# Entry
Amino acid sequence: DGGITQSPKYLFRKEGQNVTLSCEQNLNHDAMYWYRQDPGQGLRLIYYSQIVNDFQKGDIAEGYSVSREKKESFPLTVTSAQKNPTAFYLCATNNGGTLNTEAFFGQGTRLTVV
Amino acid sequence: GEDVEQSLFLSVREGDSSVINCTYTDSSSTYLYWYKQEPGAGLQLLTYIFSNMDMKQDQRLTVLLNKKDKHLSLRIADTQTGDSAIYFCAESDNQGGKLIFGQGTELSVKP
# Structure
């Protein structure tokens, strides 16, 4: 099946720990995105990558890091510097076109700090 | 910068029409989108409209675009309990394919 796989579905982190959220896609899309969702705030862009080995900060990149070593994979690390990491994290892709930018989403990872 | 605004909640009775409204700021957006999110899941594209169109109809869904007022709406005819979800309006920034989302409107359909 073609699609986007995020893992794990639920993740618990102790304060002070780094955790990495996985996002894998087999859609052969160039562009990948990480969004954070909080109740009543919609989706906010953390980082995005338009091509392998390149990525840019989004609106709320502080406390997060990413890598894009392979086209299929765009892992997100939530570092201890992120003061309020409890949220629902969504990974998305699109084909990188500049016109119709329909995004495809994974099922999300819910991160909770305990 | 770009901004997209939606009301947070809408409640309707089964069988009624639902209208979800959205305002946006970036007049250069080529496409505008409606996404649906069911509880605990990712977002699914419902429909989109090209910026040179005023209306698009797709089965029970009707999208209206008023470019002058930068207002987008989604009408769901004969709303069903399965339509209960959060609906997001989004515009593209035309720079690298980023989407800017509204806060989402939670639609509650009562039997």
In short: Chain B has a mean pLDDT of 91. Chain B touches chain A at residues 4, 6, 8, 30-31, 33, 35, 40-45, 48, 88, 92, 94-99, 101-104 (CB under 8 Å). Chain B has no helices and eleven strands.
